[in-house]
Amino acid sequence: MALRRFDLDAGGDSFAFKPETEEKIAFWRGKYPADKQRSAVIPLLWLAQKDNNGWLSEPAMREVADRLEMPYIRVYEVATFYTMFRLQPVGKFHVQLCGTTPCQLRGAEGLKEVCTREIGKPMHVTDDQRLSWEEVECLGACVNAPMVQINDDYFEDLTPEILSGILSCLRNGAAARPGPQVARVNSAPEGGTPVLTDASLYDGSKSRLRELPNLPGAPASAPAPAPAPAAKIEPEVPKAPAADDLKRINGVGPKFEAMLLEMGVRTFAQIAAWSPETVDTVEARFGFKDRIDREKWVAQARMLADGRFDEHDLIFGRGKD
Ligand code: FES
């Protein structure tokens, strides 16, 4: 990972969110409880970056830290770790060019040459302040490789010529159309779907019931039914023992009983045989700790498995039905 430092000179001494951003800040902060407000650091940094012409100055990071009552260093750590945060000024249109393998194999090198020729070195801002670019890792649109992200939009299925045209539009204030630059919808195949195009596959006609040839009254010409296969002798499957009323165990209510049955625990004898490790596993599944020991489920089950119901009820109390 590249070392990322922020540009202290370009950032000035102060930063303020735009008034209209306050509502968005409140929205993001509202997603987290009062004692977990720091969790909003990434969305707030993102909003600060948008209000600061597409990059994060050091005063902008401090403003976020002050609002979330975080040490400055914690916010710097987040901002310098994620490459979505830019730490030096960028152009009005900042091009993030994906250089990861699928885009590389599909021609990202040619796009890089266009950016270098028409904009300059990575992170250089053109004199008219309109363009800058950098290479980034996969942006998750590999199916439409090669691609770039410009501000919030993806431009996909690019060729050097198409990218050059897009940059020229942006330089001259004209609109550029984002999305795939070939005849396809999103990530669908170019030129439309080439397979599974038969409408009858979807209208239900292929799944209609057919007339069976061996039904009584079937036409004489119907082919003879295939001989029935020889009877197969299935091995006898041992039946599961009848389930005990696990709610007799004091502490096991209908909900826990249902969960036990779901786990395949049906009898007092099974619970009576639980090892400490099994108890831990069951507690982890139920989401509590030490309760099985505290309520002595295993000892209770042992007594109930032996048929000592009265003794059980006297010592532990009868579980609720
Ligand atoms: S490799 Fe370029 S978008 Fe995934």
Strand content: 5-15%
Main sheet specs: 5 strands, mixed
Q: What is the tally of helical segments?
A: 13
User: Which value, in Å, is the CA radius of gyration?
Assistant: 34 Å
Tell me the strand order in the biggest sheet.
Answer: 2-1-3-4-5
- State the fourth-level CATH superfamily of the domain at 93-180: Glutaredoxin
Ligands (ions, cofactors included): FE2/S2 (inorganic) cluster
Contiguous uncertain segments of 5+ residues? none
| N-to-C SSE string, H for helix and E for strand | HHHHEHHEEEHEHHHHHH
CATH architecture term of the domain at 93-180 = 3-Layer(aba) Sandwich
Structural class: alpha/beta
- Described by the principal axes of the CA atoms, the overall outline is flat
The termini sit apart by 61 Å
User: How confident is the prediction overall: mean pLDDT?
Assistant: 88
Please give the CATH class of the domain at 93-180: Alpha Beta
Tally of DSSP β-strands? 5
Helix content: 25-40%
CATH topology of the domain at 93-180: Glutaredoxin
